[in-house]
Amino acid sequence: MSTPSLPRQVPIISISGSHREMGRQMGEARREQVQHSIQNARQLIQDTYEELHLTWESAQIQARKYIPYAQERYPQYVEEMHGIAEGGNVLLDEVVIVNAMEGVTMDALHLTKCTSLAVNQRHTTNRHVLAAHNEDWLPEDEPDVFLVHATPKDEPPFLAMTYGALLPNIGFNAAGICQCCDTVYPTDSRIGIPRVIVSRAVLGARTPSDAIRCTVIPHRAAGYNHLIVHESGELYNIEVSARQFAMMYGEDGRLVHTNHYLHPTMISIEDESDELISTRVRYFRALRLLRETDSHSVESLQSILSDHINYPDSICNHDMGAGNRMDREKTVTSLVMDMTERAMYATWGTPCQNSYHRYQLNA
After folding, report:
1. Are residues 266 and 309 in the same domain?
2. Is residue 323 part of a domain?
3. Would you say residue 1 lies in a domain?
4. Which of 92, 134, 222, 255 has CB 3.0 to 4.6 Å from 250, enough for a Cys bridge?
C-alpha cells in the first residue's frame, strides 16, 4: 500500500489586488491546469451521461442558474471566477460548472471520502492549535492541485489549497480562521449560492462568528460540513444543508468529521444514509486515532492522515482504477495546518507516498 515518500512539492502562486485581479492572476499562472480541470469536468459529464442524462451544454445552462444568487450575496467571488476565466482563456460558464459541480450533477457523484480533524492546545506537545484534512477527489484532477498565497485588497491574507478552475476554500487566513470542508448529502438541495462560493467566503472572515455566519448564508444551494478552527483553540463543526444547519463544539479540544451528518437534526435529512458506510468507518477510525494520544504534533496528524484501515476506502484513500466513474476518487492532497505558526504542511497526492512540505503565510 505504501512506498517511499516522493519529493515532489505542491506548486504555490502568490496573488494580490482586487478579486477580479486575483482571479485573473490565478488563471494566468495556472492556465494549463485551469483548462485541464475543465476538460476533466467535461469528460466526467460525458462519461456519466447514462446515469445523469446531462450534456456539457445542458450543464452550462444549469450552471448559469446559480450565478444570480452568488452575484447578489457574494459579487466579489463571482468577480474571481470572471478573472479565472479571463486569465485561463476559458468561458465563465465552464468555470462556474467546476465550482458548482456538486449542484449541477445533483450530488449524484457521491464523492464521499474527505477526512478532517483538529486538536487545540490542550492536546498538542507544544500547545499549538492544529487542523488536518485529506482532500479526496477525482484522480484526473490531481495534476491540477496548487496552493494560493493571496493578499486581497479588502480581506485578510490567506493560504489555501485549490485545483484547476476551483476557487480556493480549504486553508487559513491572517485573522486566525482555518477551514476544512467535507461534502455531505442533504435531501433539500436547490439552486442557490454554490457550496464552493459559500466556503470561499469563510476565508474572508475575521472572527469565528463571521466565519460561521458565512456558512449558513440564506439562499445557499446546499452545504458542506465546515470544520472551523480559530487560532485561540476554538473548534466547531458546522453541518449545513440548503435550509438547515447544526453546530457542534469541540468541548474536549478535539474534532473529527468525514462525509455523513452527526447531529440528530441533520441526520434526519441525510440522503441515502445506507450508502454512506465507508465515511462512517473513516470517522470512527480517525476519532479513535485522535483519542489514543493526549499530545499530538504535526507529525502525529500526518500519521493519522496516512492510515490505511479499510483500504482502499481508507483515510488515505486510493483509487484502484476500477468501478463506476461516478465513484472514483483518491487523496489528491493532504494538509496539516499549524494555526499558531500560520504554517501549512502539504503533500501532492496520497500522504503515504508523498512528502509533506512546509508553506508559510506571510502577512
Report:
1. yes
2. yes
3. no
4. 255
| 246: in domain | yes
Q: What is the CATH number of the domain that holds 36?
A: 1.10.10
Parallel, antiparallel, or unpaired: how do β-strands 145-152 and 12-17 relate?
parallel
Say how far apart CA 59 and CA 100 lie, in whole Å.
10
CA distances from 201 to 154, 216, 220 (A): 12, 11, 12
Phi/psi region, residue 322 (left: phi>0; alpha: psi -120 to 50; beta: rest), is beta
Check whether residue 119 and residue 168 sit in a common domain.
yes
Cα–Cα distance measured from residue 151 to residue 294, given in angstroms and rounded to the nearest whole number: 36
Q: What is d(CA 263, CA 78) in angstroms, rounded to the nearest whole number?
A: 32
Q: What is the pLDDT of residues 208-227, one digit of tens each?
A: 999 999 999 999 999 999 99
Cα–Cα nearest to 161, from 186, 134, 139, 185: 134
End-to-end CA distance of the chain: 39
In angstroms, what is the C-alpha Rg of the chain? Answer: 18
Residue 317 lies in a domain: yes
Residue 285, all three cell numbers? 477510525
- Beta carbons of 183 and 114 less than 8 angstroms apart: yes
Contact (CB, 8 A) for 46 and 56: yes
Instruction: Give the residues of the chain that fall short of pLDDT 50.
Output: none
CA distance 314 to 305: 9
Q: Which domain holds residue 340?
A: 115-360
Given a contact cutoff of 8 angstroms between Cβ atoms, the answer to whether 122 and 136 are in contact is no
Please count the structural domains in the chain.
2
75-88 vs 92-99: helix crossing angle, rounded to 10: 120
